[in-house]
Design a protein that fits this description.
- The chain is an all-beta fold and about 100 residues long.
- It has no helices and 9 strands.
- The chain has one domain: Immunoglobulin-like.
- The strands form 2 sheets. Strands 1, 2, 3, 6 and 9 form a 5-stranded antiparallel beta sheet that branches. A 4-stranded antiparallel beta sheet has the order 4-5-8-7, with no helix packed on it.
Length: about 100
């Protein structure tokens, strides 16, 4: 199954699932991921990107977990994720994402 798709405006949608240890569970090939600390992950694109237009991240376990997302400083390299549990503490959790990018 393909996880990336281009539309008529030239944007590309990438989706994936990342395990709590930072390994890619689904959607590999268009991105890589590394766990950089407790609940902290860096997702990087494996293809040239001109701009990241939007990203949604959802922690994949039950409860009142949430994710804070920020773009890579250069705006094209990927994005950072910090996962928190219901006690507002950083927590290693599975997460899913969908992102819309503008390839070069």
């Amino acid at each position: 199954m393909r996880t990336a798709q281009r539309d008529s405006q030239g944007t590309r949608t990438v989706a994936g699932r990342v395990n709590s240890d930072g390994t890619v569970a689904f959607g590999g090939g268009d991105f890589t991921c590394a766990r950089t600390g407790v609940g902290a992950y860096t997702v990087r694109w494996t293809f040239p990107v001109r701009a990241m237009l939007g990203t949604t991240v959802t922690p994949g376990t039950g409860g009142a977990n949430y994710a804070a997302v920020s773009g890579h400083p250069d705006g094209t390299g990927g994005f950072f994720v910090q996962i928190y549990n219901s006690a507002v503490a950083a927590s290693d959790l599975v997460f899913e994402f969908i992102a819309v990018v503008l390839p070069r």
